[in-house]
Amino acid sequence: MEPKLVRLPPVILVSTFALLLLPFLSAPAASQLSSGFYSSSCPEVELLVKDTVRSAYEIDSTIAAKLLRLLFHDCIVQGCDGSVLVEGNGTERSDPANKSLGGFYVVESAKRLLEFWCPGTVSCADILVLAARDAVELTGGPSVEVPLGRRDGAVSSAASVRPNMVDTTFTVDQLAQRFSSKGLSTDDLVILSGAHTIGSSHCTAFSDRFIQSSDGTTVPADASLERNYAMQLASKCPAGASDSVTTSNDPVTPSLFDNQYYGNLLAKKGLLQSDSVLVADARTRTKVEALSRSQDAFFASWATSFVKLSTIGVKTGNQGAIRLFCASATG
């Protein structure tokens, strides 16, 4: 059966890997990636992944944000090596910080398809990057040309999650330090936070912004939230609400990948504390204001920062392996 071909929209090209190397020095791992890595070994890889993501999205539109979040949780811990996909006790995936992650089945579905067409060729890490990239495009965002050639990690440890993960209660200083440790700038922090233009968060992710009154009702306690918006959140997340209750990250255009997120922040409608702090600090507010004024600027900036995110700590060459099953570190 021939794979279905789809028409691709214009691509935003990002060239961040043209590095000048001194003689006899090994190239950094990221410079060994290339957009044409599979041009001979698996030329249909991007179309096959895109079709898989599109099929899942047509059934469940929430899958887009889940795939984007899944990539972030993979890359921020020990690099973009697919280690968050591994199942089992003591793995990254088993850590409580990752218990709400989703979209694993989309990566596995694409992997099965690629193993049929190009056995032992495409890594789970590359599939996850492509899936997250396609998820943004499907929700109205830019299509980004990403370099490929990552290999999968053989180690996935829950102990690595907490020291590397970003918490929703972080200050700008804490956020900037965590991003800097991954080679990402303060501008990257603001730009990549724009991922919150789609998706939703559990009530527990922002419960610290509310208190329980004496009569048991939920009352806003954070002045950085616009009052009416805070009351809406309180009604959606009453005291005793189930851990499964969620609310949209973007109250205006929750299903569109656009720059509305930044307008929300300026209107004091940032859902998470780690969103709101971006407008309370002069180091990040200027960037928020600029991105709120121009969606084109946001999309161009997103393309650059997304590529930087997707190349954190990559394994290439003889490092890692090409796993047969994404959920298994050995298979």
What can you see in these coordinates?
The chain is mostly helical. It folds into two domains: 28-166, Peroxidase, domain 1, CATH 1.10.520.10; 172-308, Orthogonal Bundle (Peroxidase, domain 2). Helix content is 39%, strand content 5%. The protein has eleven helices and six strands. The strands form three sheets. Strands 1-2 form a two-stranded parallel sheet. The radius of gyration is 20 Å and the shape is globular. Residues 1-27 have low confidence and may be disordered.
Q: What can be said about this structure in brief?
A:
Keywords: Calcium, Disulfide bond, Heme, Hydrogen peroxide, Iron, Metal-binding, Oxidoreductase, Peroxidase, Pyrrolidone carboxylic acid, Secreted, Signal. The chain is mainly alpha-helical.
Task: Summarize this structure as a short list of keywords or feature phrases.
331 residues, two-stranded parallel sheet, disordered N terminus, 11 helices, two-stranded antiparallel sheet, Peroxidase, domain 1, mainly alpha, calcium, Peroxidase, domain 2, 2 domains
Annotate the secondary structure layout.
Elements: E1 11-12, H1 45-59, H2 63-78, H3 104-117, H4 124-138, E2 143-144, H5 172-180, H6 186-193, E3 200-202, E4 210-212, E5 218-220, H7 227-236, E6 246-248, H8 260-266, H9 273-280, H10 282-293, H11 295-309
Parallel strand pairs: 1-2
Antiparallel strand pairs: 3-6, 4-5
Helix pairs in contact: 1-3, 1-4, 2-4, 3-4, 6-10, 8-10
Number of β-strand runs: 6
N-to-C span: 26 Å
Give the SSE string. Answer: EHHHHEHHEEEHEHHHH
Any idea of the CATH topology of the largest domain?
A: Peroxidase, domain 1
Radius of gyration: 20 Å
- CATH top level class name of the largest domain: Mainly Alpha
Binding site for Ca(2+) 2: 197, 250, 253, 258
Organism: Musa troglodytarum (fe'i banana)
Site (Transition state stabilizer): 69
GO biological process, one term: response to oxidative stress
